[in-house]
Design a protein that fits this description.
170 residues, mainly alpha, 9 helices, 73% helix, 0% strand
Length: 170
Amino acid sequence: MSRFEAALRRWATPGTAVLSVVVGITGVILFFHLAKGPVEAIHEWLGLGFAVLAILHAIRHRGSFIQMLRQRPMRLLTGATTLGVAAFLVMAPSKPSGNPMVGLARAAEQAPISHLAPVLGSRTEDILARLRQAGVNARPEDSLAALAASHHTDSVRLIALALPPAKIRN
């Protein structure tokens, strides 16, 4: 018996069993919105581990697995599961890709300072003064993205300067 086979024999089934319980419990917690944050991270990361161990478990028991696939109940369950997943994929509402906060930040850095100031709860003159104090000469029609490019600096730095001091939070 190879070392791989020995490792499969020792770890595949117990690991699959343990992780299925953890992923199941965290899945129920997430489904009922009882918690998020760390539970979601645990569910995702251990879910990946579960997927790997499930594949190794199927390899370990490939003979039995192939035999089960020939049986009508297994074919029916596989078909029903496939149809269910397909239905969820087709019927699920599309979500915008990426983080919407990134889009918001990009829109803010592209806007003229005169348009950005009221959104930030500031006056255009105050933003221009904070930028000037940092060595960035700007006009109300300038955008932070254009200023960042012309001053060879990061636009995030300029956004931080544009925010009124009380609005900056760590």
